[in-house]
Specification:
Structural class: alpha+beta
Number of helices: 11
Radius of gyration: 40 Å
Shape: elongated
Largest sheet: 4 strands, antiparallel
Strand content: 5-15%
């Protein structure tokens, strides 16, 4: 019965690979959902941006009655309802159309805002994806480091228990026994701290994926599954970099804003309106003839032509903002090229260090094995054995940490280049 219950519990644990995590985040992440809502609103505004040429239509109606049916005079009552009638009524309709030079820039601004919204959404998707991938590999790294610490602690525990037996038989000094006990007990705080860190990161990971904190998940994969690229060739043009495209979109929007400011300061506006009204008495035999009117007006602002006017100064401010964005664009292009080159150098350096760290792990493992055999026959003391064990665990942790840093560096480079994640991180995918 107990075994079947364990099997049921294990079957309820969701297994997640790094690709599964990316898909879950794309579907459930709260920040992406909010971005999609904003994008949908911008899409609607772009679709109906022409509504500036839609005329304004209004209807009106009125009815009035004096509520006087008679009067008293000299003690006698006189009926006045026939002479006053029962009331007056009127109906009216009007159509108003206003055209201004800013209509073109308003429509274009809606389109630019929508295109900018698409870029922002894609940027948010990439930001969430790189965060998910880093969290995933970070959890894998922490999990593997915990496993290393647990194995090292278990070895220290066995060593302490063996030494306790030797001490009870008089084959070991109390100093060596206390030293082995300290080596075992001193590892507990570090292990507990790593476990707490893993649980906190796992909670953040679930939140990013939009999963319940109560849901049990298991991460499938290891850092060794990640295949660093043999060659890094940044074939992406600097003009196609996401940071450059975003600034170019801002420049286009600023140019449109400058045009709108110029139209507002210098351009004429046209207003046309037409109204029709009809009315009469409620009990009259004939309806009064309707009246209509048509008006057309043109306004030309002159203040904008004065260099000290607010309109003229606003134009100058827009020009300055445009020039600032153009300078930012040039600086971003230069900085991006430098960032890419430095990232590639950093990755190559990390790859070269990986070979050295693997060699260090091999040397530390061989040293520990030899020291263990020597300790068992009594030719090495406990401190020497413990130092060899610490060196082995340190070499393994350093190797894992370096591999995790290499993975993060490659993800950052892929994000900078705007290419699909994993393009540089797996040589088989790149072929």
């Amino acid at each position: 019965m107990f075994a079947s219950e364990v099997e049921v519990e294990k079957s309820e644990i969701r297994k997640i690979t790094v690709d599964d995590a990316v898909i879950l985040a794309a579907d459930n992440n709260v920040s992406l959902k909010r971005q999609r809502l904003s994008l949908e609103l911008l899409e609607k505004k772009n679709a109906y941006s022409w509504n500036g040429i839609s005329p304004s239509v209004s209807l009106s109606g009125s009815y009035s009655d004096g509520f006087i049916s008679g009067t008293f005079s000299d003690g006698s009552y006189t009926d006045l309802s026939d002479s006053l009638g029962s009331g007056n009524w009127s109906l009216g309709a009007s159509v108003r159309l206003s055209l201004s030079p800013s209509l073109y820039t308003t429509i274009k601004n809606a389109r630019l805002n929508y295109e900018s919204g698409i870029v922002s959404y894609e940027e948010a998707v990439r930001s969430v994806e790189v965060s998910v991938r880093k969290l995933f590999y970070g959890l894998i790294y922490t999990k593997e480091s915990i496993a290393l610490k647990e194995r090292n602690m278990e070895t220290s525990k066995i060593r302490y228990e063996n030494n306790r037996d030797k001490f009870s038989r008089g084959q070991l000094s109390e100093l060596d026994l206390l030293q082995s006990q300290y080596n075992y007990e001193s590892q507990k705080p570090s292990l507990e701290s790593a476990i707490i860190s893993y649980e906190n990161d796992l909670a953040t990971f679930k939140q990013t994926l939009g999963l319940s904190q109560n849901e049990e998940i298991e991460l499938v994969g290891s850092l060794s599954d990640f295949v660093p690229p043999d060659d890094l060739v940044a074939s992406v043009s600097v003009e196609d970099l996401p940071a450059v495209k975003k600034l170019e979109a801002s420049i286009e929007a600023q140019k449109n804003s400058l045009a709108a400011t110029r139209f507002s300061a210098w351009g004429p506006s046209i207003t046309a309106s037409y109204s029709y009204n009809v009315g009469g008495k409620a009990e009259a035999d004939a309806v009064a003839a309707g009246k209509d009117s048509l008006s057309l007006s043109v306004g030309i602002p002159l203040d904008g032509y004065l260099p000290w006017s607010s309109g003229s100064l606003s134009i100058e401010a827009q020009k300055a903002s445009l020039k600032d964005l153009e300078l930012q664009l040039e600086n971003t292009k230069t900085a991006s090229e430098l960032e890419i080159k430095n990232s590639i150098k950093k990755i190559y350096q990390a790859k070269s260090q990986m070979a050295m760290l693997e060699q260090n792990v091999d040397i530390a493992q061989r040293t520990y094995d030899m020291t263990q055999r020597a300790y068992n026959v009594g030719s090495k003391d406990l401190l020497t054995l413990q130092n060899a064990s610490d060196s082995l665990m340190s070499a393994r942790l350093t190797q894992q940490q370096q591999l995790y840093s290499l993975i993060c560096s490659i993800l950052d480079l892929e994000n900078t280049l705007g290419i699909p994640f994993g393009s540089l991180g797996n040589s088989e995918e790149g072929e």
